[in-house]
Write a structure and sequence with these properties.
- The protein is 56% helix and 16% strand.
- It has 280 residues and is an alpha+beta fold.
- The chain has 8 helices and 7 strands.
């Protein structure tokens, strides 16, 4: 891609905390590598695939005959920086090989046939790279309240993506879609556990917030039950792979989206002003 194009996408991504109009409905991150020859930082917008505690990026260059520059850079120095719109974190890049690379590329093709088209255009084996989070700082946002809203919005967007992917899919769920479901479930679990053990005890020093925090904790338990049901529906141990698979999962996702939407709206209404005042 021309640098001017990349620069425009990078600027919009940062200004809108991970959202880019041209790629609305897609997963996008910013990857910063150091030039293999110059040592200067280079930032590239890339699509990615969720994969549990790591994310996957694919060095396709739309099927060009040579690897993209960012791939050569991370081979020379696998310490990279990732921006996801909420967090900026250091990561370790791992170029996957052999069976693992082939399995994950096949999973990507199943989710989006364009990956097969890119591989068909070139004789090189298109690399798959795993980005492992090493360290991270606080979420973006000018205040704690804004940071909470940004994090909530990231969950809203990811669940909307998963729901649309299920709705557009066939009668059964593909492997990558299952992983995406499990990844967002795990992320929500961790977020609510962090609130229950960290943020809520801190805010609980104000007795007037007790009814709000009690309600939020109760809603966390209700959402956990929905997450557990969704995880059971899409997990590798799930027994059914028939035509009910997609429809049942879509119903579970719809229940989660509705319940979580109400919960997040109430939490923001009640806690964002308190958090912003505390920051001040």
């Amino acid at each position: 891609m021309p640098n001017a194009y990349n620069d425009r996408i990078v600027d919009e991504f940062r200004a809108r905390h991970g959202r880019v109009a041209e790629y609305e409905g897609s997963r996008l991150l910013l990857l910063t590598t150091r030039g293999a020859r110059t040592g200067r930082p280079h930032t590239t917008p890339l699509g990615y695939l969720p994969d549990g505690d790591r994310v996957l990026v694919i060095a396709s260059s739309l099927g060009a005959p040579t690897h993209p520059a960012w791939f050569h850079n991370l081979v020379a120095d696998p310490t990279v920086t990732v921006e996801d719109g909420v967090f900026t974190y250091e990561a370790r890049a791992e170029v996957l090989t052999g069976e693992e690379r082939d399995r994950l590329y096949a999973r990507a093709v199943e989710a989006d046939p364009e990956w097969a088209e890119y591989q068909a255009r070139t004789t090189r084996v298109i690399p798959v790279v795993a980005l492992h989070r090493v360290s991270t700082g606080p979420p973006q946002g000018g205040s704690w309240g804004q940071a909470l809203v940004l994090l909530h919005d990231a969950f809203r967007r990811e669940l909307a993506l998963v729901r649309d992917e299920i709705a557009r899919g066939g009668t059964t769920l593909g492997a990558q879609l299952r992983v995406s479901c499990l990844t967002v479930c795990s992320g929500l679990h961790r977020h609510h556990e962090g609130e229950d053990t960290g943020m809520f005890p801190m805010l609980g020093q104000d007795p007037s917030l007790a009814p709000v925090l009690d309600r939020l904790r109760a809603e966390h338990a209700e959402i956990k039950a929905l997450l557990d049901e969704l995880q059971a529906a899409v997990g590798e141990d799930a027994a059914d792979r028939d035509t009910a698979d997609r429809d049942a999962t879509l119903r579970e996702v719809d229940r989660l989206v509705d319940e979580l939407g109400r919960h997040l709206a109430y939490e923001e209404e009640q806690l964002v002003p308190v958090l912003d005042a505390a920051r001040g």
